[in-house]
Amino acid sequence: MGTTDKDKPTAATAPKLTKEERLAQAREYAKQFKFETLSEEDLIRLRRNAYKYAI
């Protein structure tokens, strides 16, 4: 008695969204994440490390 995924909707059956709707969806998704948890010093350190690896 195996299970099948025939009943689950696929991405192909989803209605096409306009550019504005996709942008609004992306903004709502991005709100879940907290980017302000890094201090200014941490951001400077990360940027300096990125420059070191890029050179």
Description of the molecule:
- 49% of the residues lie in helices and 0% in strands.
- With 55 residues, it is mainly alpha-helical.
- It has a domain of 35 residues.
- The protein is elongated and about 50 Å long.
- The mean pLDDT is 75.
- Report on the biggest sheet: none
Integer average pLDDT: 75
Tell me the overall shape: elongated
- Secondary structure category: mainly alpha
Low-confidence blocks of residues: none
Order of helices and strands: HH
Distance between the termini: 58 Å
- Counted by DSSP, the helix tally is 2
In helices, the fraction of residues equals: 40-55%
Give the strand tally. 0
Radius of gyration: 21 Å
Q: Name the beta content range.
A: under 5%
Please render the helix and strand layout as text.
Layout: H1 19-30, H2 40-54
Highlighted features:
55 residues; 49% helix; mainly alpha
Compact overview of the structure:
The chain is mainly α and 55 residues long. Helix content is 49%, strand content 0%.
